[in-house]
Amino acid sequence: MVRINRDNLFLHIPDDKLITIKKVVDKIEVILNKHEILSTDFLNPYEIELAKSILNKFDINYSVEGGYPHAERNIIYMYPEHLSDIEKDKINYLSIKKKEDIDHRDVLGSILRLGIDRNKVGDIIINDNNIFVFVKAEQFSFLRFNLNKIGRQNVDFTNDEFSYEDMEYIEKKYIVSSLRLDTVLSSVLKMSRSKTDILIKSGRVQVNFKIESKNSLQLNEGDILSVRGSGRMIFQSIENVTKKENFVINMKFPK
Questions:
Q1: pLDDT digits (tens), the chain, 255 positions
Q2: Strands (E), 98-230
Q3: Within a domain: residue 86?
Q4: Which of 150, 163, 134, 170 is nearest to 255 (CA)?
Q5: Residues 36 and 88: beta-carbon distance below 8 Å
Q6: Any coiled-coil ranges, and where (predicted)?
Q7: Residue 140 is part of a domain; what is its CATH number?
Q8: Maximum CA pair distance of the chain?
């Protein structure tokens, strides 16, 4: 029987991700011994990279899927090395007619109040007409029958199909004196640097799905910023540098 030596295996794993990654290692041990096909819950990109850093140490195969190309939250399917491909549990999506004043937090909050764990839910995509919620097949039927309201509004399910091209973002330009995390957030959130510093130091800010406590962190194009209570944004690009050496940056926000 194979027993994984866990000494020093988790040294690079942050404390807040230890439980998630230890579950992955538990599954690896089962696969090595019983040759089963197993999968994780939905993981964010940072958790995926941490899991890969462990998976690549062992002789097993794995694939990462989230229900559509370029999904943000994904499931890792793990299986014995002698298998080149497997039949995976289907990732389904709920298609819900969009109504006014419904946003990502409303949808997620309504799902969590039904007792569904956050890790059982994949991406939530909202466009002008629909809300698409990606879930494992095991949660699909439960939500289809029990998700009756989002906020105060009744839920109307549709048969509309999801298309990756339908994802919509709002782009905005900002002029900032530097690419420091606190400087960019101060401009985007329209608050003082001292207040953004409090947000960062209190653990309410994530960069690329990792809690960031360094207010002087230099941002790079493509970085994904999340601020608890204010939502998510993407540092899309640097459009220009002014004569006063300020940066004109493009930020994208999910619509």
A1: 888 988 889 999 999 999 999 999 999 999 999 999 999 999 999 999 999 999 999 999 999 999 988 888 999 999 998 887 777 778 999 999 988 778 888 999 999 999 999 999 999 988 888 899 999 888 999 999 999 999 888 999 999 988 876 567 889 999 999 999 999 999 999 999 999 999 999 999 999 988 899 999 999 999 999 998 788 899 999 999 999 999 999 999 876
A2: 121-126, 130-136, 149-150, 153-154, 169-176, 205-207, 210-211, 224-227
A3: no
A4: 170
A5: no
A6: none
A7: 3.30.70.330
A8: 67
| Radius of gyration of the chain measured on its C-alpha atoms | 21
The model's pTM is: 0.80
- Segments forming the whole domain that contains residue 23: 15-80
**Cα dihedral across residues 72, 75, 76, 79: positive or negative:** negative
64 forms beta bridges with 76
What is the number of domains present in the chain? 3
CB 181 within 8 A of CB 205: yes
Answer yes or no: is 9 within a domain: no
